[in-house]
Amino acid sequence: MTPLDLRTGLGWDTHRLAAGRPLILGGVTVPSELGLDGHSDADVLSHAITDALLGAAAQGDIGMHFPDTDAAWKGADSIQLLHHTVQLIRVAGFQILNVDSTVILERPKLKDFRMPIRQSLARALGIDETCVSVKFKTHERVGPVGEGLSAEAQAIVLLARL
Ligand code: C5P
Ligand code: MG
Predict the structure, then answer these.
(1) Which residue among 110, 137, 140, 152 is best mutated to probe the pocket of ligand 1, counting the most ligand atoms within 8 A of its Cβ?
(2) What does CATH list as the number for 6-161?
(3) Helix or strand or coil: residue 47?
(4) By alpha-carbon position, which residue is closest to atom 8 of ligand 1?
(5) Most CB contacts within 10 A, which of 8, 22, 47, 77?
(6) What is this structure's pTM?
């Protein structure tokens, strides 16, 4: 019998909040006064999950695969980059078992968007939504996240080598 080859991976990201920007989390646009700022759509959650997948497969990080300077990915949604990463992980011989994640954002409240975000991520990941968890936390009004200047996301994934 082949021994079970499981790989775990950790991802983290942060982006500033700014006026006039959309708040996109896991490919879902959440109504908000402020949105996430960055070179891309600044989807902090998709970025954290992308890094977690790459980490689990020991395939570098998001900046290595999708550099800011690469015209091929200019204007691409982060959820598309996540989907591309999933294909890369598959080619490397891995299957995704589950994803857990946390978005840390002071406001708005995100819990009503949990299901659409899980469904959007599950589509990009090619797994059932019951295998995709998204949690939300404030930063208790302290630090840059707590003061409403930025958001963070953390993700952990489990892969099985086929
Ligand atoms: O950060 P705190 O522990 O106070 O968060 C309590 C709950 O509020 C979380 O478990 C989550 O369900 C919800 N929450 C949310 N949107 C946020 C932050 C927290 O829906 N931006
Ligand atoms: Mg990012």
Answers:
(1) 137
(2) 3.30.1330.50
(3) helix
(4) 137
(5) 47
(6) 0.97
